[in-house]
Amino acid sequence: MPYRRCGRSGLSLPSLSLGLWHNFGAGRPYEVQRAVLRRAFDLGVTHLDLANNYGPPYGSAEETFGRVLAADLRPYRDELVISTKAGYDMWPGPYGDGGSRKYLLASLDQSLTRMGLDYVDIFYSHRPDPTTPLEETVGALLTAVHSGKALYVGISNYSPSATRRAAQMLAAEGVRLLVHQPRYSMLDRSVEQPPEGESESLLEVVDELGVGVAVFSPLAQGLLTDRYLAGEVPADSRAATSRFLSDAQITPEYLAMVRGLARVAEARGQSVAQLALSWVLRDPRVTTAIIGASSVAQLEDNVAALQASPLSDSELAEVEALLAAG
Description:
Number of strands: 10
Shape: globular
């Protein structure tokens, strides 16, 4: 497992990290989840990414991880980087959502209890809250560090300008913004360009500030896989079962593009998913790509992407042409 330094911090993360999102809820077999976590650690996937409301139901992914930690991974706690987040809906009422100090710090305490931890390595503000002053959200992150409940802090889904402001506020109090977690894939490249009304892209800002990047959804919710190459939507696929993906996205244009990517991948001895991971990791500003895995076999297939050689200029040009046409 190759590791990459997280921005200009002292922390290195594996090139691939495991996200405990929808594959680690209470409705999944515990022994399958346990096997995935154990195998991930054996493969050097030492960064496990959670959030308070991962499941379903909310909180169940953290509870699952807590069970596996107690059963198997406790002796290796100091070889793990555990991250969790708060910012999206977690419980009813006015104090279980957003970016307030009350919500973030209460949620962190609840997360630690569910996981059976004294601290997390990284605590994130999961999203900006336009109804809460950024100073308050940043203040809660500072308290998390100063109280010893988090070693580092990060932000997710923040704009370039808000990222810069948050980093400056933290630095003024002697705390580094360790990492930003944005969505990034071949099919969502918004981090490469300045958003409307801003002059810098997110990747430009984090590079200047020395902030690491942990990208999520590098496979575009499964669109960058081999699942739909035949033009059909399997009954157990995300396009058939997930509210985050629709079979309406399996268009003729998409199929032409993904079949072209499959040809590029095959020439490299890779699957489409492995090519997509190689592509997102081509950028040295990316510290780690967060993958999901519903089985040990899927995990191993994703990690095998790291065995391939870096994408050549001609391969990158071919991918760009396919993406432009799609």
